[in-house]
Amino acid sequence: MTIEPVTFDHAGRRRRFDAVMTEAGVDAVWLPIGADLEYLTGIHRRVPTFGEVNYTHGWASGAFLAPGRDPVFVLPRMVTEFDLPAGVPGEVVTVNETDDGDAVFARVAAGFPATRAFGVGARTWGSAMLRVTAAYPGVRLVDATRLVNRLRRIKDEQELELMRRACAIVDTTLGETSPRVAAGVLELELAEEVNYHLLRNGSRTWSFDTAVWSMGPLDQRDATVRLSQQPLRPGMGVSFDFGAVWQGYCSDFGRTIHVGDPGEEYERVYALVMAAQQAGIDAVRPGATAADVHRATRAVIVEGGYGEWFRHRTGHCIGLDVHEEPYISEEDETPLEPGMTFTIEPSVFWPGRVGVRVEDIIVCTDEGGVNLNEYSHDLVARD
Q1: For residue range 267-297, what is the model confidence (pLDDT) as tens digits?
Q2: Domain 157-382: which CATH number of 3.90.230.10, 3.40.50.880, 1.20.58.100, 3.40.50.720
């Protein structure tokens, strides 16, 4: 599949970030390669791996930014050699294997003086933090990711269109995988099927580890085991949790499909979980808080008698990262704003009894919550 890359106004994003830094009294920031730096400059992240992938001076992989200035990137040679196919806006300082990395970093940092406060991305390497503290002794350090989040949490129409595409990929993927749900099929086989269709449908990768697990009255299995080589059995609900990546933007999606004829309790819980999600969507409006949406979602399941087994938060914001702040959770009183995108994903997981979940991405609009997914919420049972 040929994918035409989109063009973002990264310079405009940086100008808005300049205003955020100025308002916060932050003179400059260091951001490691990651979603924040990609949002502001377009530098691509590699697909993450379970084990560490690193190079000599790998800690020096990021950029300094300050209001009114182009970024200055500090990157190990292996990154500049192989990971910048589209280039980056601003100067690139390459740290070669035989260079004194500490001295190079200190020299570039000296060009970004800070007297009031200096911001550091939340995912900065610990080894890079040692160099930051040495370069800015006595300067107040702040979480730069929280500053970038003020911009990232609100998606413009270009971003929303990319997220709709990421949602369409997962909708299509489950539609193609669902017929494989049958007694005797391994959970692992279904997960492999999901991952295959994600890539075939254009996803760059899966946005997190794909999970397929079955729960029901036949055993005491808990939802903490998200994937195994256990075969599906009649009487079990099979929960899916997976996501796609389209042009850097993520989706996160879930449904539960029953194997065999569903019993009375499964049908009751399934209807309860779908009603809980709808109550959460109905609670979405500008000015409502993330906690308000969580309370509305949870109340339906509590009133239905399964509150103890709704063990998950209601959801989380999503975009360039799968989990972004604010969280749709009881402790988060952040007011919702138009353009915020987040999951609403209620569930009931009762080991030895029943397991049901649903998950879609919702965008807050002036008129309320709008679902970016189009996959059916109807109960599905397969032999």
Answers
A1: 999 999 999 999 999 999 999 999 999 999 9
A2: 3.90.230.10
Closest Cα partner for 131 from 58, 36, 62, 60? 60
Give me the mean pLDDT over the 3-17 stretch.
Answer: 92
Report the side by side order of strands in the sheet with 140-143. Answer: 91-95, 72-76, 62-65, 28-32, 117-120, 140-143
The pLDDT of 205-231, averaged and rounded, is 93
Q: Measured between alpha carbons, how far is 373 from 253 in angstroms, rounded to an integer?
A: 8
Residue 141 · residue 6 · CB < 8 Å: no
Is 2 a residue whose pLDDT tops 80?
Answer: no
Q: What is the pLDDT of residues 107-117, one digit of tens each?
A: 999 999 999 99
d(CA 88, CA 92) in angstroms, rounded, equals 8
- How does DSSP classify residue 231? B
Which amino acid makes up residue 159?
E
Query: Which amino acid does the sequence have at 322?
Result: V
Q: 324-341 pLDDT, tens per residue? A: 999 999 999 999 999 999
Query: Which residue type occupies 93?
Result: V
Is residue 1's pLDDT more than 60? no
Looking at the domain covering 10-152, what would its CATH class be?
alpha beta
DSSP-derived pairing of the beta strands 245-246 and 253-259? unpaired
CATH topology identical between 10-152 and 157-382: no
Element (H, E) at 303: helix 290-303
Q: Which residue shows structure tokens 């369409």?
A: 168
The number of beta carbons lying within 10 Å of the beta carbon of residue 128 is: 22
Residue listed under structure tokens 């035409």:
4
pLDDT digits (tens, 9 = 90+) for 12-26: 999 999 999 999 999
pLDDT tier, 145 (very low <50, low <70, confident <90, very high otherwise):
very high
Q: What are the percentages of helix, strand and coil residues in the chain, rounded to 5?
A: 35, 25, 45
Contact 150, 20 (CB under 8 A): yes
β-strand pairing of 381-382 with 140-143: unpaired
Q: Could you state, in order of their start, the residue ranges of all structural domains in the chain?
A: 10-152, 157-382
Instruction: Dump the DSSP string for 309-367.
Output: G--S-SEEE-SSSSSEEEEESTT--PBP-TT-EEEE--EEEETTTEEEE-BEEEEEETT
